[in-house]
Amino acid sequence: MKDFYKTMSSINRRGGSRQNPYENYTTFPDSPMCERSSLTPIGVSQHVRNGRYLRERYSRHRLLNRDRLSDQVLIRGTKYTRTFQSAVAFLYGLLPELDLGLLQFEMADNNSMCTRETQYECWCPAISNLLSVFSCTFHQELTRIRESSGSEELYNHVSTVYRQLSQKIGLPAEDLPRMSHIFDVGITHFCHNKPLLTTRGDCVEPLMIRSMYEAVNELGQKSRLDKDFVRIVKLKMQPLMYEIAHRMQAQARERTSLKLVLYSGHDSTVDPLSCALGIATGVWPKYAARIVFELYARSGDAAFLRVLLDGVVVTGDLIFCRDRLTDVGLGLCKIQHFLDFVNQDSLASIDEKDYKLACQRLLTI
User: Which of 13, 29, 235, 276 has the fewest beta carbons closer than 10 A?
Assistant: First the structure.
């Protein structure tokens, strides 16, 4: 970590020739106090390890030309410093001798990672108030849970956890924030071995954090099958999925020099994307969670896709690749199936043909 800090400090001073929307952002979270929603040194180490892991897997393929990295690598984050610092840490693990000043950086103003470079309409009025929603934060209201058929056991579990939190924090259950918000704060403290104190000076015990984790995951597993939630994630992630699929096609046809595109987003990016693709479990994404899209090609043959979720091959679980694998051993699926999905099949699955028209149909949930 000491070497990483020295390297990042040097890079931050050097600057580069490309216009960088993160030019005034710090590359390393070196503040003596953790700022709200900021990356921590432990988080940095996770991303460095992720980068090193993928470097070990990909280095023998020699996919990148060190003399052309400025044309072959693109990084896109959001306006939050932690997404930029996460990307920097990952790149340090993947390409430790990299000069950040020479790379292409883009900043999305939303957690769906859509920009004007996406070549797709980013603004979708139908879900404009739901961009922060993901499976573990969808429909946490006890009345909604109780009204859902077959949810009596889930209702009892969630209401029990709310009662426990109410007693611990000293507020009526109806005045508490959403459980996912409390859990989000609690798990941060837990992972850094720091006590989570209430206003009364009591500690929220690890067992209570565990109870919240189990409850929000039960909610997530139920939400990922909810037709309203599925519609939300399909609309939210359509621009990004379209961009990824068509970029892969362009690379397969040798129409772009890009070989590595890194999207540094949020749990509210990873979970909706995995839900839209049909590979979600409903469990809260881990810190430094990742979805990797790999492009394969054989001489004189079609291009193929492989997808990994946190290092596990899940291509066969993709909605558009189930029972369609070309190579079961490697987990390869024709890229054309991905293109068909983003071009028409994903919208057709929610009874839509036109994205702009679909985005005008406001949801009442």
Answer: 13
Checking if the pLDDT of 334 tops 80, the result is yes
Cβ neighbour number for residue 173 with a 10 Å cutoff = 15
| Neighbouring C-alpha atoms within 13 Å toward the C-beta of 131 | 15
Contact status, residue 223 vs residue 139, Cβ threshold 8 Å: yes
Q: What is the pLDDT of residues 12-23, one digit of tens each?
A: 333 344 578 998
For residues 75, 80, 81, 83, the Cα torsion angle rounded to the nearest 10 degrees is: -40
Going by C-alpha positions, the residue among 66, 87, 120, 110 that lies closest to residue 259 is 66
Q: Phi and psi (nearest 5°) for 150?
A: 75, 20
Segment 54-73, tens digit of pLDDT: 999 998 888 888 888 889 99
User: Is the distance from CB of 94 to CB of 59 less than 8 angstroms?
Assistant: no
Q: Could you give the CA distance from residue 155 to residue 160 in angstroms, rounded to a whole number?
A: 8
**Burial (CB count <10 Å: 0-12, 13-18, 19+), residue 199:** exposed
